[in-house]
Amino acid sequence: MQFSREDIDRIVREVVTQSQPGAKGTPVATAARFPASSSAKVATAVPAKARAAVLVAPKQLEIRDFPLRTIGPDEILVKVEACGICGTDIHCYNSDPFGLAPAVLGHEGTGVVLEVGKNIKMDSVGKPVVPGDRIVTSLMETSDACMIAKYNPLKANLCDDMRLYGLLPDEPDNHFNGYFGEYLIIRPGSSVFVVNDMSVELRTLIEPAAVVCHALERAKTCGVKLSFRTRVVVQGCGPIGLMMIAVLRTYGINTIIAIDGNPSRLELARQMGADETLNYRDYAGIDDLAAAVNAMTKGVGAHFGFQVTGVPAAFANLFKCIRRGGGLCEVGHFVDGGQCAINPHFDICRKEVTVTGSWAYNSFEYPNAYHFLQRAERIGLPMTSLITHRFPLDRIEEAFATNMRQEGVKIMIDHR
Hints:
The chain has 416 residues and is α/β, with parallel strands linked by helices. The protein is 28% helix and 23% strand. The protein has two domains: 5-200 and 387-414, Quinone Oxidoreductase, Chain A, domain 1, CATH 3.90.180; 210-357, NAD(P)-binding Rossmann-like Domain (Rossmann fold, 3-Layer(aba) Sandwich).
């Protein structure tokens, strides 16, 4: 019996995918866990062409068909299942600050392996990789010319040539560089992790979880002991801020104060582990807000603060909430949001406040993020409730608009 390429793709799609996702705007339940699919069935599901959402110019995404080339011996072909929309994707959509266009965005993704190059046997932690495995990947390794990675591999995230899938310009022979395409080609030198025991929702949260896990490690360098008795302020309850709260609760911090201006996000902050919430809109200014933090911290301010808003003025304000000898980690400014004014005497010198920044993550922090999410669920934190909306690929601009209106929390592009 003869089958067309479309017939084969349809049959395999039924085998390797789950049922249709929930309706837009409703909380998304965690999908049932599933085993890897049969490699014999998966390996044939490679169409000649596939679709991808291309950022062609600021505020302009186009769904285009591209030929799907044969992979090389050191590459992996992945059928994308889902990808979250990140704040960085929004910045790229609005102004293309990195000059990527044309490009296929999307880096908070996951998918099922269809083909494995003959030279690849294991993932980045030694697990076998075969067709049917569910994987995550984001980082590609830096070039040999990078002096930072060469002499301090633990700081490879600071390389100027650090490359992430979904933040790569389009290439003539490969248009599937981001998770907002139906397929992804994982190229040589990339970090890859098999995560078959996680639902698709949790898998899409691994990348942002790596961001907050890295921020926690950066905070530990400030000389402020983070322990059960530490009082911590998290300023900003967007997706990363909420995950920051969850990682702190999972780590054992007992007093977490969340600050935001959105009541629904403050309520979700409590579900993620915040003990107290403050809506900054209820206060006349930063002095009143800082007084409220002081009242919750024995009158002296928080031991530590995480700034996760991306608003420069918020960074300046957070100093007022930190006690003498405390620390502060800046997590929110992944693009240039402008400048702000602080008082070096009162904010830093007189208090001996230690300030650190947190930039992305390293590939070896993915396993840490994976175990954080497992632990968070185990202690009852509703991590997948962060995913509030799903959209198919052909409604991606609607998905971006929903994100920019700050409706819900984490918006997912669902390819299944």
